[in-house]
Amino acid sequence: MKFMSEPIKMKRGLKNRHLQMIALGGAIGTGLFYGSASTIALAGPAVMLAYLIGGAVIFFIMRMLGEMAVDEPVSGSFSYYATKYWGRFPGFLSGWNYWFNYVLVSMAELTAVGIYMQFWYPDLPQWAAALVCLVVITAVNLINVRLYGEFEFWMALIKISAIVMMIVMGLYLLFSGPQAFPDNFSNLWRNGGFLPNGWWGLALSVTVVMFSFGGIELIGITAGEAEDPDHTIPRAINQVIWRILLFYVGTMAVLMALWPWNQVGMEASPFVQIFSYVGVPAAAHILNFVVLTAAVSVYNSAIYSNSRMLYGLATKEEAPEFLGRLSGRGVPVRGIFVSSGITLICVALNYFFPGKIFMYLMSVATIAATISWMVITITHLKFRRQCRREGRETKFRAPLCPVINYLCLAFLIGIWFFMTQIPDMRLAVWLLPVWLLLLWAGYRFREYRRG
Fold it and tell me: Which fold has domain 16-450?
């Protein structure tokens, strides 16, 4: 396999605190603030167990990616590893699948920015706010990787601070609210029990919960630009998982204890409910600011990760050669322009044709995260076999390999099955073979062009 030479290298400007917030910010999105009510409706108080199960699976998958990233910290991450240890098509598939997924996610977040700004400025055109966000974030990413890391650090910190405030305020209500402590904790098993919708409801809830963790694999994309990757990547992976579980499970535990599960999110977002009960009149404004920040944060990470994925694909000759060149600051400028430019086109299409083609594309994006996780899991198996053949030890070994790899694969296949049982997710599963066929056609065309 021929890799292109590149005299200018990417700069290792991301510190441990950047990696921590990038990983946390990528996995904590608007779903926790707005979408948690629908997840609670599926499982009731057992939604806490759903986050524990999903978080455990993601932890093991991240350890697999972390072992490969520490052993060989490169841009392009799991796409590079899939090509090297599995084959050209798996690397092509994983890279373009990840890129396409994040293009769609960034389109949605860019559109959301316009909607959130209209909360304060109803007459502001949605396209105008989206355009300003696109220009600012693109400029931030063009300068250097450290500026991106700083920007994402503070955006993610706002989201995390909001969650911490929600937990603290919720605990205050638990111990001093109208219901006497500890009687209010009986909400965890009253109203149908801890599993009001049975194990089936829990399984459906786990399926929805898994998409809350989409984006955490971004930490692997940063490996090529992390300072001292031997130490920063393991620390980021080991620390970020228990923090996410604390935020998600902690928030759900507080909500389930405060109110009967079938009343959470009925009047407003659970976030607004807590702040309104405490007596904060600006609860809706606070929430809007937080979700606006969350949308900008996800768009920022999407532009960053997509440009690095395009660069990684180009260095393997699986994307156009011009995308494999860096600026003098070590930034893949062309990949940034391509990724942000496509989101601009799609936002325009969404403006002229709302609720049509865009939603069909988004249904494909919902399943793309599971494809990425499957590629990581299978590639790690092949990586370990290669290490055994060479008789070498890795620095950051993933635990319980290979048994946990097969369990994770079975779990992800199960997610596909349960997606067919949820009307809003069913279309993504039916479109999966079509999407894989398109990727195969793209790969064959690329191979034909290469001769």
Answer: Amino acid/polyamine transporter I (1.20.1740)
What DSSP element (H or E) covers 359?
helix 357-390
pLDDT at 31: 60
E-assigned strands of 20-120?
A: none
Collect all residues with Cβ–Cβ distance below 8 Å to 135 and sequence separation of at least 6.
none
- Which among 371, 365, 318 is positioned nearest to 346, based on CA atoms? 365
- The confidence score (pLDDT) of residue 1 equals 41
CA distance 40 to 205: 8
For all residues of the chain together, what is the average pLDDT? 81
> Which one is predicted more confidently, 81 or 12?
81
pTM of the predicted structure, to 2 decimals: 0.84
Single-letter code of the amino acid located at 25: G
The answer to whether 33 and 271 have CB atoms below 8 angstroms apart is yes
Contact 106, 345 (CB under 8 A): no
Q: Alpha-carbon torsion 55, 30, 218, 162, what sign?
A: negative
pLDDT category of residue 2 using cuts at 50, 70 and 90:
very low
